[in-house]
Amino acid sequence: MARLYNQQLSTINYQPTTNIHIMSRSKALQYYIIARLLLAPLMLWTVTTAVFLLLRATPGDPVDAILGGRAPESAKEELRKQLGLNLPIWLQYLNYMGQLLRLDLGTSIASRGQAIWEVIGQYFPATVELAVCSMAIALVVGIGIGILSASRPGSYLDVGGRLFGIITYSLPMFWAGMILQLIFAVQLNWFPLGTRFPTTMPAPQAITGLYTIDSILTANFSQFFTALHYLALPSITLGVLLSGIFERIVRVNLKQTLQADYVEAARARGIPERNILFSHALKNALIPVITVMGLTFASLLGGAILTEVTFSWPGLANKLYDAINARDYPLVQGVLVFFAGIVVIASIVIDIINAYVDPRIRY
Asked: What is the pTM of this model?
């Protein structure tokens, strides 16, 4: 009877404490999410203001880029009035911020009045397709080499994995892209030199804007393999170079996890090393990869400009490069604000996922 009474008493004492702990952690997470959501507009405003000021501080006149340096001065003044560039800087800034509050990114100067949302809708799917394939390659290669390196510390595989991570992390993307183009496209003729689809074939029917997906949806497998062939070299180049980030993270965290007490206890119980590696250690070692994966993918959407320019890939990053050269202020500002919004949203989503995946995280 005394034992039964003590068990009931311990159960009664334990349950409220557990519930209070769960409720306090849930409220703390809710407050953190609300705070991040409130800070998101401030982050976007900071990025927008910085881009607005930096563009106008750089040398060059967008009117000269459109009309040419030899155009009559009267024509230049008229175009400045149409574009609002004759107004004071502070008034241009207020007008632009008012447009952003209405979710109006404005119109492109170089594209003769095309809405920036239309430009994003036209070029962004190509960037997404390249980013998704590159991220898949980076995860498979990086995590695989990281596991092999950490599971055999001090071996040739470990040394090779460390060298792979250092080399791929430090190689310039444009240089590696040109070298791979020279080898696999020019010398071996295995892959196309650039672009997204051959001009001699009709492009897949536009459904999602992703050529590989659209060709599958229309059951045109000839277009699918062609789109995959053109996608292979730029995505492999970008994916392999990014895989070094994941290799280093997985290797370091997995080596630390394999030295933890619960792993030693599992070994003492006679659990096979393979089961310990994949069922116990790897799950905890991959938690930091979630954060890096989300932020890397978000930065890929806006930072693949060197890849797209090197391979003449018609994505939004390549269009941003053209807009910078043409001094197309509205298009540069609109695309950068769009990319900044993606990064902010991705960072918030990653923090929420991490909080649910890893209960040790406290906010």
From this structure: 0.80
